[in-house]
Specification:
It is a single chain. The chain has 119 residues and is mainly beta. Strands 2, 4, 5, 6, 9, 10 and 11 form a seven-stranded mixed sheet that branches. It has a four-stranded antiparallel sheet with strand order 1-3-8-7, with no helix packed on it. Strand 7 and strand 8 form a beta hairpin. It is globular.
Length: 119
Amino acid sequence: QVQVTESGGGLVQAGDSLRLSCAASGRISSMYGIGWFRQAPGKERELVATINWTAGDTWYTESARGRFTISRDNPKNTVYLQMNSLKPEDTAVYYCAARAWGRGTYDYWGQGTQVTVSS
């Protein structure tokens, strides 16, 4: 099993930046990748960005492309989500989740961290 823990959320103003961290532990060798998700009040959970743990390939949803950067620090078992030019519509609880090799779903979830962007 893999455990993930998010940190770095907070209250910022529109245009500010914030960096979220996702620390992984447990069976890291079984981990295919990490995804960052977010869920705003009254909305469905949305996949924001993903990174392959070994190769480092990344993917972004359209609204995040160009503003957010996902990266990994393998020795620290940590994935980051650098968020720049934040907008009020980025306000949500952000979750990281781990996906294991051979699995098509993200099975290991953190508790979430709140990001609030004021206008």
